[in-house]
Amino acid sequence: MPTYDISESVPYDISLPLTEDTFELTDIAYDVVIDDLPFILKVNNQDPYVRQTAPYKKEQFDNSTEPGEQSLTGWWLRSQTSWHNGAGIMFYEPGIDYQNVSHKFKDSRGIDIWTVGEIKLLNTVFHSYTGANGIIATADNDYIINADSAGNLKVLTLNGDSIATVDDRTADLDADHSGEAFKSITSDGTRYFAVCTNAIHVGNIDGTDIIAGAKDITIARHSTAGLHSIKYVKGYLMFGEAWKLYWVPLANPLVNTNHDGTANFPAGTLSKSHENPSFVWNVIEGGNRFIYAAGYAGTNSEIWAVPFDETDLTPYPPAAIQVAQLPYGEKVNAMKFYLGYMAIGTNKGIRIAQVAENGSLVLGPLLFECDTNVTYSNTIPGVTGFTANDNYIYASTTVMGTYTNPSTLVTTDVANAVLVRIDLSSQFEDGTFAYAYDLQYESDQDSYGTGVLYADDRLHIIVNEGAEAGEIKTEKLSQKRSSGWLETGRIRYGIIEPKFFRYINVQCSTGQGDTITVYTIDENGIENSLSILSAGLSNQDILISTLPNKQEYVSFKFVLNNSTEDQNVPKLEAYQVKATPAQRRQRLYQYPLSCFDNEMDKYNSVFGYSGRAMEYLTRIESIEATGKFVNVKDFRTGEEYQGVIEEITFTNESSPDKDSSGFGGVLKITVREL
Fold it and tell me: Is there a single domain that holds both residue 592 and residue 558?
């Protein structure tokens, strides 16, 4: 008999009608009627009557270069041995090439997924600085330079896993701009440059005087239109003043005690004046052969490129061109050029752009989409900043989480400042990259990620928390989080048929007191705790008792709980799920039927006519060829059902004589019950 794959569609046109059943009972004792054709069974040892379960699983053939689960028989298996290709999938169906799901998962918090073959807990964070009135910051080596919306400017020196040392420079700022909110800050490695609405301030990071008798000096007052952004790039300062974009060389001493732009500091060269006077240049970033600036007017956001002459090392303002237009309603908040790519952070999420030779940006899709449940000051904050290290870009944003009060055990929803890590060395065929949530700050009140820095060989999240704006949460050097979780993609084996999910085998490493709790998530999204794994409980089949009913798919959540915060355990190394198909089984019936011109029933009643055998065979073959559904009645068993003729075989056994055409014999018909 032929075999059929459970994942194949019914190989018949189900729109075809049933054949017309016109058979009426007679005085002949027929055994079986197929549609309106009655037959006598001719059962013997050579031609038995057979009923059997129809095949519902295909015989798997493995033609890959490496043996895999498709090589095995019995259980339907699904395994995962690494998660380093990041988050973002809905279904975990490796082997379907276009989906790019190999070594991916759905979501995680607090989990380091970047080592091939394991996941473990990320480092925790600690409070290293309390800001005030909002904060903007830049980082250089072991310093963080902080300027806030109240006109304060400070240099922070990190001190291990303890509170940062603060060098307050506020008193050294020019009195003309006392209390003005800082809008943007940058550094060239030894100096910082910070803009308030009407001026650019400069100072040496190490606190030494720029000139004798002066420490931090207001070096330029460009106009009263309002400065918004500043960036040190390619040896120049680029700054945005409302709808105008300027550049200034840094070869001069950068001193102007008159604050009028006429002393030793040039007033700046206009690079681009936007046609819309409501446009604001809010982000500036370098590139290979271009300097990029982004801005917005209402819901319109654009990115422009200023060519840079590599021969005389100067910007070339007349050729400023628009290189990208963001979709309607998407506003650029931050940009980062790194390893040949431009990361663009918006109120919607993150796009990674290809940088063309002519400076244009080929915008990728939204690689990461921000949590739309988070609002801050009645807006979605989105992605607010970038930093980079090694192969990774880190973006600051905010995600909704939960907090459980240890006293009352009441759980509430809170916003958490969090980082997203993107691996630029891992690009997929569809142009996307591996990403996952990274460092996260959690507390009992809402916190919002407003920026990210890399200094002192670790990450720092800038956070607005409650009434405290401008806090810095710093990554601890070695101490791990107490817990974290990862949710897998939905496992459905590439088909929508229901399954019984029977066992899961988890390979893990745990230290004394560590645990890994395994949860099932059914097709209704309901989580249930399945098992708690600790030392000695790895690599054992666990009965999936939380899913007693058949499911189209299931996903799993692994919660890693840490008792020793300075060790790299617990670790999850692999899991394997075992399932069986749960669809209704179909049955095959094989009937050996007498098919002669003239026949006799069990009561010796003779019936038939010349040519009858050929007529019956032709009609049965016609039904089989069209795939029509048939009604089958078995008078011996009392069964009646609808089915499809799967196969017919006719063996001629009669010889011609004066009453017979000689065309007659045994007609074997195999019917699949539907």
Answer: no
287 CB-near residues (< 8 Å, 6+ apart): 305, 337, 342, 355, 359
Which one of 581, 601, 618 terminates a domain? 581
Measured CA distances, 621 to 41, 62, 373, 616, 660 (Å)? 18, 37, 63, 9, 21
The pLDDT of residue 252 is 55
Structural domain includes residue 589: yes
Q: Dihedral (C-alpha) 113, 116, 121, 126: value to the nearest 10 degrees?
A: -70
Q: Convert the pLDDT of each residue in 99-146 to its tens digit.
A: 678 899 999 999 999 999 999 999 999 999 987 777 888 887 788 999
- The Cβ of residue 1 has, within 10 Å, a number of other Cβ atoms equal to 13
- Looking at the fold, whether 558 and 599 belong to one and the same domain comes out as no
Q: What is the token pair recorded at 622?
A: 């016609």
The dihedral through the CA atoms of 392, 239, 187, 144 has a sign that is: negative
Record the pTM: 0.82
Domain count, the chain: 2
Q: Give SS3 for 129.
A: strand
Pairing relationship of beta strands 321-325 and 598-600 according to DSSP bridges: unpaired
- Do 50 and 59 touch, CB atoms closer than 8 A? no
561/545 Cα distance (integer angstroms): 23
From the CB of residue 562, how many other CB atoms can be counted at a distance below 10 Å? 25
Shared domain check, 573 and 490: yes
For residues 656 and 639, state if they share a domain. yes
Q: Among positive and negative, which fits the CA dihedral 105, 110, 113, 118?
A: negative
With contact defined as beta carbons under 8 Å apart, do 387 and 454 qualify?
yes
| Residue count of the chain | 674
> Which of 546, 581, 616 is the endpoint of a domain?
581
The residue among 163, 154, 155, 130 whose CA lies nearest residue 469 is: 130
Q: Find the CATH number of the domain harbouring 92.
A: 2.60.120.340
Residue 603: inside a domain: yes
Task: Please answer whether residues 624 and 645 qualify as being in contact, where contact means their C-beta atoms are separated by less than 8 angstroms.
Answer: yes
Q: What is the DSSP letter of 654?
A: -
3-state secondary structure of 612: helix
Which residue segment(s) compose the domain that 529 sits in? 70-119+485-581
Sign of torsion over alpha carbons 271, 276, 280, 283: negative
**Does residue 523 form part of some domain?**
yes
Peptide bond between residue 656 and the one before it cis (omega within 30 degrees of 0): no
- Tens of pLDDT along 507-558? 999 998 999 999 999 999 999 999 999 988 899 999 999 998 999 999 999 9
Q: Is residue 293 part of a domain?
A: no
CA dist 438 and 457 (Å) reads 16
- Structure tokens, 466: 């409650």
Residues 558 and 611 in one domain: no
542 plus 524 within the same structural domain = yes
CB environment 74-103: b (16+ within 10 A), e (fewer): eebbbebebbbbbbbbebbbbeeeebbbbb
CB atoms within 10 A of CB 635: 15
CA nearest neighbour of 547 among 523, 564, 513, 573 = 523
559 plus 606 within the same structural domain: no
Assess whether 575 and 602 both reside in one domain. no
Strand ranges (DSSP E) for 69-220? 76-80, 107-109, 111-112, 119-121, 123-129, 136-140, 143-147, 153-159, 162-168, 184-187, 191-195, 200-204, 217-220
Q: Are 92 and 490 in contact (CB under 8 A)?
A: yes
